[in-house]
Amino acid sequence: MRKITQTRDDNCLQAAVASILGLTLEDVPDFGQHDDWEIRFMDFMELHGEPVVMTPYGSAVSGIACGRTVRQTKHMVVVKDGRIVWDPHPSRAGLLNITHVYATGLAG
After folding, report:
1. Which residues are CB-neighbours of 50 under 8 A, at least 6 positions away?
2. How many other CB atoms sit within 10 Å of the CB of residue 84?
3. pTM of this prediction?
């Protein structure tokens, strides 16, 4: 996995995807700029051989976890086997809670 840091408060998904796929931030679309961001994200992941499925959080789940931060914002981080392995936010503070995970095979 390549650890990519987000460059704005609203591009954590872009950075998490780049990290998982081993790409640069510039190689990944900024999904959050579109109303249909989830479809674009899922299509991009499948195109790169990492299809995702939204699933509840659990100890055996790997992928991109969604939840709330200490900053009281929605955020996404990379998890492997239920543990946060990369927080793309510069603070690296992680999540207070995880609501769900876009599960993948975690390439790279």
Report:
1. 20, 21, 104, 105, 106, 107
2. 15
3. 0.93
